[in-house]
Amino acid sequence: MEKVRRVERVVALTKLLVDRPHHLFSLGYFSELFGAAKSTISEDILTIKQALQSFGLGTLETVSGAAGGVRYLPQQEAAAINGLLTDLAERLKSADRIIPGGFLYMSDILFDSQLMLQIGEVFMTRFQHLAPDCVMTVETKGIPLAFATARAFHVPLVIVRRGSKVTEGPAVSINYVTGSSRRIQTMSLAKRAVPAGARVLIIDDFMKAGGTARGLVDLAQEVGARVVGVGVLVATAEPQEKLVEDYVALLILHEVDEHTKKTDIRPALV
After folding, report:
1. pLDDT (tens digit per residue) in 112-168
2. Whether residue 99 sits in one domain with residue 69
3. Helices H, strands E: what count in the chain?
4. Would the pTM count as exceeding 0.70?
5. CB half-sphere exposure, 233, CA atoms < 13 A
């Protein structure tokens, strides 16, 4: 094998680590891949870690022991999070986003892949201490956001259906009451989607009274899982009392005035 120059090795190492957040790579894997000693790989990793931290691009975590290695954690600094959320709030204040009924058009935001990857890393930063085994959401608009969060954690994404699908086998279904319209709806989850005892992080795009989030919590508990956190991109300021007690909202929607075309939405700064 042709000798790999250090600059080439560092670039390749960075690419491999950053492309797979939270994935634990052994030093032996990199040593064999690049034909270099583990001590040399360790020096490269230290260089990459210092560079990432200097520019606020995340960090590398070294895990000791026989089954140890190194992994990339896409942690975001408070200043970067606040800047991202402030810019996003300004985008959502645009008058042409107001839809009859006092709603905001958000689909372009939610299906912006690069933006959702950034928001997923924000959720990872906020919930990292909870160490979830999977991320759960309900179809459909919250899927990109939940997928990005699952990628940042390197865990599976579980999608709850608004009705059962024959192709997914036996499922658990529950009826829940939407907090805002007080309508009864049904959601279902394939029995094999979440192992019993799994730590579940719920991620969704919007919360008003919290009825959907409450339904997801109840459904997770019904299959024997444990909900460790709830995160939403946007939550309304009213009602103050939600149907879930503990949740993290990145943006707070205070008011949408259809007559003046003014939207009061603010970032939940950290």
Report:
1. 999 999 999 999 999 999 999 999 999 989 999 999 999 999 999 999 998 766 667
2. no
3. 8, 12
4. yes
5. 28
